[in-house]
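[Q] Does anyone have a clean structure-token version of this?
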Amino acid sequence: VNEMYTTFVEPQFMEKYVNSLKPGTMTPSEISNFCNNLGIQFFICYTHEMETELKEASFTQIASIDLNDFPQFTALIRTPSHTLRLFKNFIQTTLIDPPVSYQYNRSNLSWNAKAHTRYIIRYRFHPQFKAFQGQNQEPLILEKYQPFEDVPLTFMTVKPTADGPIILKFQKRCI
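[A] Here you go.
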């Protein structure tokens, strides 16, 4: 996610959580909850303090890279350390919760849904998103979902009434 864009559209979220996500500011449980609420599967860190905290939150290091091996890239990153470490969340998180296999193209997101299951879609809620199910494209109700009570960031939920494919469409309107 682009930091400038997110700061523009979700300034309270950035201030309360992202900008303060530094070693010593969250417990391992809070780090885990933060990542799980947002569907964060991977986390990149560059300090040993954050590495320790991620391990305490049950993240597993799966890769590291020495930026000295990529001098053209180092100038863009500006990290105090020269090693970036990639960690994987121990909980399977994804764009849709509960996790499902989904297809994405341009303005559509689709997956095979089970009846009466509440799906959280980790896209920012916008009234131009519409959900449909079945061959007749029956409209479904999309509701707002707030992953954090203390900031206005909202995602979407949908609860189908039948088993079968759901299509989530962003329907642009011309002014």
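[Q] Thanks! Anything notable?
[A] The chain has five helices and twelve strands.
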